[in-house]
Amino acid sequence: MKIEILFPEVCNLFGDSANILYLKKNIPEADFIETSLNDVPAFVNEEVNLIYMGSMTEKIQEKVIEKLMPYKQKIEFLIEDNVPFLFTGNSMEILGKYIVKDDGSKITGVGVLDLYAKRNMYNRYNGLILGKFEDIEIVGFKSQFTEIYSNNSVLYFAKVDRGIGINKQSNLEGIKINNFIGTQILGPILILNPLFTKYLFKTMGIEEKELYYEKEAFEAYYQRLKEFKDEKVKF
Residue 143 belongs to what domain range? Predict the structure, then answer.
């Protein structure tokens, strides 16, 4: 079992690094490969069971695009081959066609995903989110300067009940293609959503197993669901 964490030294905003810690607690027997910006990604030459990348600053996005651009075809192949990916926060933006900056100029993306992002650095969106992925209810948080535009009417991750989707006009959140999941949901998403975590593990080939502090995780999850469904709670 190999899990690759892409660029953890810079892709670690909004507590997303806690997803990594949670994975390590749940799968201590796995080989965790923490790939730095100076390394060749392990997925280029090795079989991996999960590729994870968290949120980053806008400046780092450009460095990550430059780093991953040579591996565009490999990433496309891995997605087609059903290798699990989990990209959180603004990380999936780098795989899109381009990112529009405040001045109207564009940063060319890796071009794997049919989407683009538009920044508004003077208006950060912060909000809660309640939605459903397949039959799993999802909770979390968002904090972003960008909105994403894509025809994800089929290839979405979660349908939003409260909060916003990929942009403020959409109720469809994220992108899901085979076992690739890109979501702007923070949280960190794995700790907040034990049912989704179990789903992710199945895509990685892990048999049903008890999560780290599973009882407490589910108690917190159902309590949060109850709170997020309360119409008095502002989103």
Answer: 2-228
